[in-house]
Write a structure and sequence with these properties.
about 475 residues; alpha+beta; 8-stranded mixed sheet; 5-stranded antiparallel sheet; 12 helices; disordered C terminus
């Protein structure tokens, strides 16, 4: 990764090129004013304003590119408004659909990328007022199994029809495809009611379990309904019929609703207590047929680069967790720019704290957001700043799979999101062993100091029992 100074210098030169008229007007205006021309002072002042914008623009762009978190990013008041397992997402709204359309569940059987082709002419591109521009919205081809009858209605949940089509998917909602559960509106016009199918993307992230959801009833009791698809779908239907129900963070408070709507939600809660619904799996069977991490842009996962000076002076790795993501109208080719809130857990065991930071989040990471919202941070030796390491994050999140090559040449695959990955990353970082690749080859001389410890980590997790490969 380039140093912060290197990034600033590059952005300063780019801004100076784009705003080069500022210094020119400044000099010409001053020269004219010095010669007695009355208009010279006004031209010189305008040039000065444009010239000042050069370092200001460079500093702002550098802060967006260089994902360093410092003390000034801490949430005022210390944070703590969200629980550790909360995840709030504000994604672009889907079209409301025709009045007679029915809100139902659809399972994703297969998915593949059709096209994603941003122009890539600028580091950051802003579409004012448009949260889902076509240029930065991938087109995905999916085969869906649309449920026309709910399990709650006494059916086995398989009644329905299949449809294959192409849909534009907001990057924030990609994980709903991987999880395999979508909310769709079905236009009843068509044979056996199999009319046009419109995917409701923000609602799909709720049904998929990417977004958490809780309900406070009229007595003040809090119930977690995350990954309870039957109850959530029923709640969504009520919300659509009444024109929307407010969620504060990830919570619906029935005490804030009108009496009739609150009563309908209360009836759902009573039914759920009488006949509890099993929690759905994190991902439906057949995820590999829906996984788009290799087709969408983003950094490849790896064990990470380690600077010797950073390691020797006490630099270390910590984990943080996204609590909130809010869509914006600015994008980069490899992902949207989002307003985020993270909870950082310091390595010394002190109290966690929340930070608010505007970040570009890679699209391949958003694909697996239903599995994990964790990120890896490298901490400066003095403990005052944190840098997001997307390479390590994507390896930990399962975007990329890891392999360890033992000293005897055995290839030991490390499963996605294995609990062996985190201790291995810390082991390499503490010994100043750089390994940007997801393949850790213990036959290399640079890994000599950590061979025994790495094999112990794999043995403790039962990962060393593998067949020899040619």
């Amino acid at each position: 990764m380039r140093s912060r100074t290197g990034v600033f210098v590059g952005q300063f030169l780019f801004a100076a090129l784009c705003l080069s008229t500022g210094p020119i007007f400044l000099v010409l205006g001053y020269a004219a004013w010095h010669d007695g021309a009355g208009w010279g002072l006004a031209v010189s002042a305008a040039g000065a304003v444009v010239t000042v914008m050069i370092p200001v623009s460079a500093a702002g762009t550098t802060r967006q590119i260089y994902t360093r978190i410092t003390r000034r990013d801490r949430v005022k008041g210390g944070g703590g408004a969200y629980g550790d397992d909360t995840f709030v997402m504000l994604a672009p709204r889907s079209a409301p659909g025709p009045t007679g359309a029915r809100l139902v569940r659809a399972d994703v059987l297969e998915a593949s990328l059709v096209r994603y082709s941003p122009e890539g002419e600028a580091t950051f591109t802003t579409h004012y007022g448009n949260y889902a521009p076509a240029e930065f919205t991938p087109v995905i081809r999916m085969r869906l199994r649309v449920h026309t009858v709910d399990e709650a209605d006494g059916a086995d949940g398989r009644a329905g029809f299949e449809v294959t089509d192409e849909w534009r998917v907001p990057p924030l909602c990609l994980s709903a495809i991987t999880a395999g559960r979508l909310v769709v509106l079905v236009d009843p016009v068509g044979p056996e009611g199999s009319g046009k199918v419109d995917v409701q993307w923000p609602r799909s992230t709720l049904l998929a379990g990417t977004r958490t959801c809780r309900v406070i009833d009229l007595e003040g009791r809090l119930t977690d309904v995350t990954r309870r698809p039957g109850r959530q779908l029923a709640q969504m239907r009520i919300s659509r019929e009444v024109g929307g129900v407010e969620m504060v963070g990830d919570t619906i408070d029935l005490r804030r609703l009108d009496a009739e709507t609150a009563a309908r939600y209360g009836a759902l809660a009573a039914r759920a207590r009488a006949c509890p619904e099993d929690r759905a799996p994190v991902t439906e069977p057949g995820e590999e047929a829906r996984l788009l991490v290799d087709e969408l842009p983003g950094e490849e996962g790896g064990f990470g680069h380690v600077g010797r000076g950073w390691s020797r002076r006490g630099g270390r790795l910590v984990r943080a967790r996204f609590l909130e993501m809010r869509g914006r109208t600015t994008f980069q080719d490899h992902g949207p720019v989002l307003d985020t809130v993270l909870r950082i857990r310091p390595a010394d065991g002190t109290r966690p704290f929340d930070v608010a930071r505007r970040l570009t989040v890679p699209m391949n990471y958003l694909v697996v957001l239903h599995h994990t919202r964790e990120v890896v941070l490298s901490v400066s030796p003095n403990g005052r700043s944190y840098d997001i390491d997307w390479s390590r994050t994507n390896l930990l999140a399962g975007v990329t799979t890891a392999t360890v090559i033992a000293p005897d040449g055995r290839e030991i695959p490390v499963p996605r999101r294995s609990d062996a990955l985190w201790p291995l990353m810390n082991l390499l970082a503490s010994h100043a062993v750089s390994n940007p690749s997801p393949v850790l080859d213990l036959r290399k001389r640079r890994t000599g100091l950590v061979v025994g410890a790495v094999m112990d980590v794999l043995l403790d997790r039962g990962l060393t029992r593998t067949d020899h490969r040619a």
